[in-house]
Amino acid sequence: MTEEFRPEYKKKSIRSFVIRAGRMTDGQKKAFERYWPVYGLSLFSGPIEPREAFGREAPLVLEIGFGMGDSLRTMAEQETDKDFIGIEVHPPGVGRLIHTAGEAGVTNLKVYMADATDVLSDCIADNSLTRLQIYFPDPWHKKKHNKRRIVQPEFVQHILRKLKPGGVLHLATDWENYAEHMKEVMDAAEGYSNTQADGGYSPRPDYRPITKFEKRGERLGHGVWDLVYAKR
């Protein structure tokens, strides 16, 4: 991986991701040259001013870990009344997203290739997000690696500060054990309320597209669990 395509982050002892040096296609490399100036944001530029970045005032949605970006681009195309910020550390996914978004003419999307905790701390204002979504994060399924899971008590309190009152944190996973862990963390988290009256898992909201990965899992009989919690 060349230096110019490396994610940005500040040094810390435990990260929720590893840098996987996936091979960049020529198309993805060209996407950085052509579209990063349009969509890219830098951790080291400090707090983002959404009105300046998007040229308007609109509800702000942030997604952590968008993978190859297809579902995030689809949401930006379908929810044109909202502005979207995506955070991802893997350059091939970032390259694919900005390429497909650029080719589709998407204008309500910005991207960080950086550590999510750092972006939340340094770039996102408190009480600014209408929705924060984390879909299919790395489950770190080995017990010795559970501490690397991104959904942890301290992290969801960090997110809470960034949400507007009534804003929602939407989590989704296809690992039942991680779903149980997420629910345990969220049920214990101060300042949040489960949007389901029965306190259970949520049906998939219409705004979350079904990914190819998810469809494949459904065919194999794998479950998917959504959790939607609102800031009180």
Automatic annotation (TrEMBL):
Chain intervals for the UniProt region annotation (Interaction with RNA): 144-149
Annotated positions binding substrate: K142, D174, T211, K212, F213, E214
Binding site for S-adenosyl-L-methionine: E63, E88, D115, D138
Enzyme class: transferase
Record CDD domains: AdoMet_MTases (cd02440)
Annotated keywords: Methyltransferase, S-adenosyl-L-methionine, Transferase, tRNA processing
KW ATP-binding (keyword) present: no
EC annotation from Swiss-Prot or TrEMBL: 2.1.1.33
Catalytic activity from the UniProt record: guanosine(46) in tRNA + S-adenosyl-L-methionine = N(7)-methylguanosine(46) in tRNA + S-adenosyl-L-homocysteine
InterPro entries from the UniProt entry: SAM-dependent_MTases_sf, tRNA_(Gua-N-7)_MeTrfase_Trmb, tRNA_methyltr_TrmB_bact
Superkingdom of this protein's organism: Bacteria
HAMAP family: tRNA_methyltr_TrmB (MF_01057)
Family that this chain belongs to: Belongs to the class I-like SAM-binding methyltransferase superfamily. TrmB family.
The protein's name in its UniProt record: tRNA (guanine-N(7)-)-methyltransferase
Species for this entry: Gilvimarinus algae
